[in-house]
Amino acid sequence: MELNKFVVIDLETTGHSPENEDKIIEIGMVTIEDNTIVDKRNTLLNPDKDIPPFITSLTNITNEDVKDAPAFSDKADKVIDLFQDGYLIAHNVPFDLGFLNAELKNSGRMILKNPVIDTVELSRILFPKAPSYKLSQLAEYLDIHHDEPHRALSDAYVTAEIFLLLKQKLFNLPYETLANLAKLEKMLKSDLHDLLQQAMEQAELEVRDEEFITYQGLAFKLTEDSPREEVQMKTSFGEYLDQIYEENGALENNLKSYEKRTGQREMSETIYDAFQMKKHALIEAETGTGKSLAYLLPALYESVQQKKRIIISTYTTQLQTQLLEEEIPLVKNLVDFPIEAMVLKGRNHYLSLERFAHELNSKERDNYDIILTKAILLVWLTETVTGDIDEIQLPSSGYNFFNRISADSERRLDVTSPWFSYSFYTRAKRRAQRADLIITNHALLCTDMFNDYQFLPTYDKLIIDEAHHLETTAAHHYGLKLDNISMHFTLNQIGRYEENRMLNQVIGKYKDSLEHIEFDKWDQLMDDTKYELDELFHYLYHFVQKQRKNDKSLSDVGRIQFRFSKNEIDEKDWDTIIEMVNRIIFYYRDLVHFLSTLDSTLEKATNYNKYDKQEILQMIERLKMQIDQLQLLFLPKPDINHVQWIEIDTKGSNQAVYLYSEPTSVSQLLNDELFVKKDSVVLTSATLTMRNSFQFIIQQLGLTEDRLITKRINSPFSFKDQVQVLVPNDFPDIKYGNMDDYIYATSEAILSLAEVTDGRMLVLFTSYDMLRKSYKLLKEIMTEEKYMLIGQGITSGSRARLKKNFQSFERSILLGTSSFWEGVDIPGKDLSCLVIVRLPFQPPDHPVYEAKALEIKENHKNAFMELSLPNAVIKFKQGFGRLIRSTSDRGIVFICDARIVKARYGKYFTESIPDVPVHYDSTHALLSKAKEWF
């Protein structure tokens, strides 16, 4: 096929599938020759059936529009003619070509067999950093103007422009990358053979390797670190802040709409004082303080002044990205000395070039997703300087492949290996050694803390943002989770002797050296281990079912949680469980012994390579880890106060069993491992206090008040003028089992409020079950599709994608649970109304809460006041903070739960948020109030 003619097609149809008698209603075609768009054509077609309303609302094509249009069969020959001697290109080829060929077949024509190029697939490979591969979002990323999304000619034209950029990118890749892509091409959907050959021929004639390093068939981009300038801090801290914060300062000169916030400077000064006095600090900085900048400035000054790095830890990767891409570049413009800041993550985030080079040539486990992943990684290597996989999106099973080639899989990299100097992880650690600020996350911070500080470079001072999550992150890290699905997955990955799995793939190369090893014994061991695992988890499942029948307080829908320990379970049941666990540990140890013997035998083979050795050692490591986990869960040391619990999934198979263990308190651990060992730890968040008191967080984290500074920074926003809180007094009381009535009242109120606010509403739930029921009910009672209804866990997509969908529709209602209570910024007119369905109390029967509550009661204290209420207040403050994100925002917070007014403890919630008007009245009166307000 001559590489000169490419025909791009896009179709609008009555539905998703020609098998369901769906038909084409519009066809758009764009022809490219000599890298130029030379022709574009468009026609409406009569589908001989009604166009569904949702297709009309998507495309604006009505039944009236196609009434006098030709049938497809009238245009079929012209379509075939246009594709003569050309490539067929579409954004998702299977869809367009499937419809086209179905229509051709129905009209008695031969189907098209042209070579195809799928621009979705090719974009995933050649633009690995694109945030989305939907046509409109990809066009936006590539700065291509899209006139009429969901119209055939406009979509085809945009696809043609994207293809020209893709072709240009392909022809600028280094030869090694192209050669590797050519080896993978056969398993891709797109026919790229001739294009790749032409690009390789051109690459051989040009010198384009200066920007890339090529080694062992891989081309990758690696920048050299420039030498650091020695900086002498000549100004005092006060002068430094004056030059930034005060009138005519750097902030005013760098930000167009700069408004001075007194709290921001106050926070910077508090942090600097904590550093100087070698104290810890708890700083609650309310919405609008600008806390990121407020802590970055003193951190930088201290780091440069003392020539010692400072660690900044965040809970979410979203905040990490914001710090690196928005805040740090701003700070670089504000100060007059060079600074170095970087993100450091765990080894499992970084690609190992050596492992990738090895796996690239291995075809034993390749399916389409893995081939696509390899292709994506090949191109990404020509762009990335960090090797951090979070920069790109992989196909779903591509992440399993990445686990095999991450820096975590290379174990200790030999310093004499040629790959050592190319290791992304080693380079990241080296950059971290010389950085002023290292941004990390709570998970790596805790891993480092509980492993003798071997993962992060040494530090004395630390700033923890989103600090209200530190306690739970530390507890999860000191705890564990184990389930039969992951245990079976490990065993299945290793496999029996004859199965094409890890063990078979390794030993297949060394059969001559392994004649005396009895692999039938291995297979028997593997079968026995799986049998014992099934027996244990089957027993645990039915054991929890039995407890549920005896204890009516345990939930009987979804997941059932049951706290277990030797003291809480009947002795006979406990002895049976322990006997079964010991049998599994016994079989696991036999598997480990067999693999160790295999490794020792292979050591004597002349051709035993290090990659295969690593595979066997990894298998051993995984099995040993699961032995340790079983022992910690069922045979724990008596000196550590852990809570253990079982969860079973009543909707899944009777084998869906999950085992958990967590310490009931990490306060002593954090005190011993963090606060005693570090000079200064600054903890900040928008939500650390309850009724202006830090007492709860101080106890949770194990801080001692003799080395502690506490500070509250008030918001610069005028909440009194920006927010109205509305609480209905006529909702059914859930306490009396009126859950369905409550949901109905909530749904009616949501729709009535939506009329007032034109949608633009975020509804926060405390349970997914209630969210799902409300979503279903809202769909039923919405007589017309007036609002775009988006439900977390129902509408597909990540939290960021749901938020983007919410903002892109004029009238939308977003229903969210747990993760939407915080970290979601929807500023301006996109959000005018926040509905809080229930006060966010933790379920009282959650095993961790139960165990903590029991400890509190044993100390003669009130578990509700000491634990349940403070946690609920902090989460409520997070939810409340979603509404007002700038001085110009205005809105309503509608709280369906009257306990905030009626209950004795209600004032703990209202007195923990900014002072705002609270109206307690009938729903009807509140809706009138809302109309007046807007």
List keywords for this structure.
globular; Rossmann fold; 46% helix; 934 residues; EC 3.1.-.-; 36 helices; Nucleotidyltransferase, domain 5; 7-stranded parallel β-sheet; alpha/beta
Protein described:
The longest helix is centred in the middle third of the chain and has 33 residues, at 571-603. Among the domains are: 5-170, Ribonuclease H-like superfamily/Ribonuclease H (Nucleotidyltransferase, domain 5); 480-663, no CATH class; 722-933, P-loop containing nucleotide triphosphate hydrolases (Rossmann fold), CATH 3.40.50. The protein has 36 helices and 25 strands. Helix 19 (442-449) crosses helix 20 (470-478) and helix 24 packs antiparallel against helix 25 (610-634). The chain is an alpha/beta fold and 934 residues long. The mean pLDDT is 90. A seven-stranded parallel sheet has the order 10-11-9-12-17-8-18, sandwiched between helices.
**What is the level 1 CATH name of the domain at 722-933?**
Alpha Beta
Helix tally equals 36
Q: Please tell me what the overall shape is.
A: globular
Q: How much strand content do the residues show?
A: 5-15%
| Range of helix content | 40-55%
CATH topological fold name of the domain at 722-933: Rossmann fold
Helix/strand-derived class?
Answer: alpha/beta
CATH level-4 homologous superfamily of the domain at 722-933:
P-loop containing nucleotide triphosphate hydrolases
Which strand order do you get reading across the main beta sheet? 10-11-9-12-17-8-18
Number of strands: 25
What is the end-to-end distance?
64 Å
Mean pLDDT: 90
Instruction: Note the main sheet.
Output: 7 strands, parallel
Domain Helicase ATP-binding: 250-514, 272-509
Function: 3'-5' exonuclease.
Motif (DEAH box): 465-468
GO molecular function: DNA helicase activity; hydrolase activity
